[in-house]
Write a structure and sequence with these properties.
It contains 4 helices and 6 strands. It is an alpha+beta fold and 147 residues long. The chain is elongated and about 90 Å long.
Length: 147
């Protein structure tokens, strides 16, 4: 009984006989020939068709694509597994990947300049130190003193 039900589930008889498998699977290319280079940095943007902020975010991301930044869109209603794997609860959510690893994540719409700052932080070396100074009658404050 189980064999009959299993055969009906696996390949129903109204489709005819199952297709024959090839005796040997052809090798398309060697692994060394098909190695593709992963981009150094990539934006993984989780959006939805019904999301108004996502629609306003697309033109900003299009300007980044024109500048050479790789942007990959994921529709949360279509790719549920990737949405769960990345723990996405709000759209638009953008994950910044460098060498395939998550380095930053932000929710909402950002300007192109803000996204560039996240991708390539330009933090000049700071020379100086903090000092505690008297702040009138209210107490003390920290002041950055450049050297």
């Amino acid at each position: 009984m189980f064999a009959i039900l299993f055969s009906l589930i696996v390949w129903p008889p109204f489709l005819g006989p199952p297709p024959a498998l090839p005796a040997e699977v052809p090798v398309v290319a060697e692994m060394s020939d098909t190695v593709t280079s992963e981009p150094a940095e990539k934006l993984l943007v989780f959006t939805a068709k019904y999301c108004a902020p996502c629609k306003s975010f697309h033109p900003i991301l299009d300007t980044l694509v024109k500048e050479g930044i790789v942007v990959e869109y994921v529709d949360v209603s279509l790719d549920f597994q990737q949405t769960q794997r990345n723990e996405i609860t709000v759209v638009p959510t953008t994950i910044v990947l460098k060498s395939g690893k998550e380095v930053a994540r932000f929710v909402g719409v950002k300007s192109a300049a803000q996204i560039k700052r996240i991708l390539r932080p330009e933090s000049p070396p700071r020379t100086g130190h903090y000092e505690i100074q008297r702040d009138g009658r209210w107490g003390w404050k920290y002041v950055w003193v450049r050297e």
